[in-house]
UniProtKB/TrEMBL annotation:
Name of the top EC class for this enzyme: transferase
Gene3D superfamilies on file: Vaccinia Virus protein VP39
Pfam families in alphabetical order: Methyltransf_11 (PF08241)
EC number: 2.1.1.-
Entry keyword set: Methyltransferase, S-adenosyl-L-methionine, Transferase
Biological process (GO), any one: methylation
Name of protein: Class I SAM-dependent methyltransferase
Species classification: Bacteria, Bacillati, Actinomycetota, Actinomycetes, Geodermatophilales
Molecular function terms, GO-annotated: methyltransferase activity
Length: 211
């Protein structure tokens, strides 16, 4: 079983950039993503643990899976600061180190765009969620605008994945979630950050789907 996907340059860059992103609105989006979550949560690709402080008290336990060693170490450091119990585990989305049917909620936050085996990952999330469990997602998405889609595809074929930890911007998380058999309950599309010029990573989707 593969548990580690080291990306030392990306992890350093992400840790430097993310505080600014939190300030300009990402922290609010994380709160929106996690509001109302309850029970046992599996968070996949938790990074350095930026969601941990936003879990409401109705969450009893978070199992946070992260394959990048530097980010995982930072997440382990952040876990005790959260108001809910957080356990950090090594592993990948494609082979989750989590028991079947053990989770009430699964969380994907800016992760699916970097996962190579998206269908396998979503199959794993269905496996670990109890029937009727929720998948909460906040993800980059392919643009609705045709010109931006072209720009995304050029970015994905050139430097973007190298600079952004394997991220591909022209992915379709909503379609992937539906194809995996989840029923999408609600979804909101928006640009983040709100810039004068849209960039490949601007379009996002935030929503909830049921297993
Ligand atoms: C942009 S970061 C987002 C981190 C965190 N979720 C957040 O919201 O700040 C993308 C994360 O996905 C993780 N990742 C990449 N490929 C993965 C995979 N196959 N399985 C699980 N996580 C993966 C990376 O290690 C990284 O932590």
């Amino acid at each position: 079983m593969v548990t580690d996907l080291p990306r030392p340059l990306f992890s350093r860059w992400y840790r430097r950039l993310s505080p600014r992103m939190e300030e300009v609105g990402m922290a609010g989006l994380r709160r929106e993503l996690l509001a109302g979550a309850r029970g046992v949560v599996v968070e996949v690709g938790c990074g350095d643990g930026l969601n941990f402080g936003h879990y409401p008290e109705t969450v009893t336990r978070v199992v946070a899976v992260e394959p990048e060693p530097t980010l995982r170490a930072a997440a382990e450091h952040a876990a005790p600061e959260a108001q809910v119990a957080v356990e950090v585990r090594a592993g990948t989305a494609e082979q989750l180190p989590v028991e079947s049917g053990s989770a009430d909620v699964a969380v994907l936050c800016l992760v699916l765009c970097s996962v190579r085996g998206r269908a396998a990952a979503l199959g794993e999330l269905r496996r670990v969620l109890r029937p009727g469990g929720e998948l909460r997602f906040l993800e980059h998405t392919i643009a609705e605008d045709r010109r931006l889609r072209v720009v995304q595809r050029i970015a994905d074929a050139t430097l973007w994945p190298l600079l952004a930890g394997g991220c591909h911007t022209a992915t379709d998380p909503l379609g992937d979630v539906e194809r995996a058999g989840f029923a999408v309950q609600r979804v909101r599309r928006f640009d983040f950050p709100e810039l004068a010029v849209r960039v490949p990573a601007s379009p996002h989707v935030l929503g909830v789907a049921v297993a």
